[in-house]
Amino acid sequence: MHEEDDDFDVLLLLTAAHSRREACLSSVRREVHQQMIESAWRGAMRTRHYLTVSCLDVPCVAVWMALYKNGLDKNFINATSLTRAAFKTLLRRLARFYHLPSGRGRPPKLRYYHQALGLVLCFYVGSMENSTQCMLFGAPPSTLSRSLRAAEEALSRALPEFSLARI
To answer: Which PANTHER family match (predicted)?
Structure first.
C-alpha cells in the first residue's frame, strides 16, 4: 500500500511538472507568434503602397488637362462645382497669390495655375481617394499633397477680399 502511494505521488509530481512545462511552452509560443506578427507588420509598413511616377501619365497629358481643354461644361461642373466662367474668374484671382517656380532647377510637376486650382476644387468636391487624384493630375502622392497644401494656402489668402466669393 505504501509503495502504491509512492507511485501515485510520483505520477502526480510528473503530471504537475509536465503541466508547468506545457504552460511555459505555450507562453513562449504565444510570445514568438506575437513577435512574428509584429515583424511582419513592420515590414508591411515599410513597403510603399502607393502609385509611383512610372505608372502615372505625364501631368501635361493627364486626365485633368483633357477635362480642362476639351471637356464638356457639365463634366467640368461635376469635377469642380464651378462653371468655366466662374473657374476662370477664380483662377485670375488665385494667380496673384499662388507661386509657380520658374527659372533654374527642376520644373514643377503642376506647371499651370489651372492645375493648382483644379486640384483644390477636385479635392473638396470629389470624394475620391488619393490614388485617384494622383491619376487625375499625373503627380505622385508626395508632390500632390505639397501642391495641394500650397494651393489651399494661396486660395485662403485670395478669397477674403474677393467680393465674388462672399456667401
So the answer is: DDE TNP4 DOMAIN-CONTAINING PROTEIN (PTHR48471:SF1)
Question: How confident is the model over 143-156, as pLDDT tens digits?
Answer: 899 999 999 999 99
Question: Other C-beta atoms within 10 Å of 13: how many?
Answer: 10
Torsion of CA 136, 142, 143, 145, to 10 degrees: 70
How far apart (Å, rounded) are the C-alpha atoms in residues 147 and 164?
24
pTM: 0.68
User: What is the C-alpha separation between 71 and 78, in angstroms, rounded?
Assistant: 11
The CA distance from 61 to 63, in Å, is: 7
Burial of 146 (0-12, 13-18, 19+ CB in 10 A): middle
Q: What share of the chain is helix, strand, coil (3-state, %, to 5)?
A: 70, 0, 30
| pLDDT tens-digit readout, 133-146 | 888 898 888 889 99
| Mean per-residue pLDDT over the chain, rounded | 86
CB under 8 Å to 96, separation ≥6 — which residues? 158
Between helices 113-125 and 73-80, what is the axis angle to 10°? Answer: 70
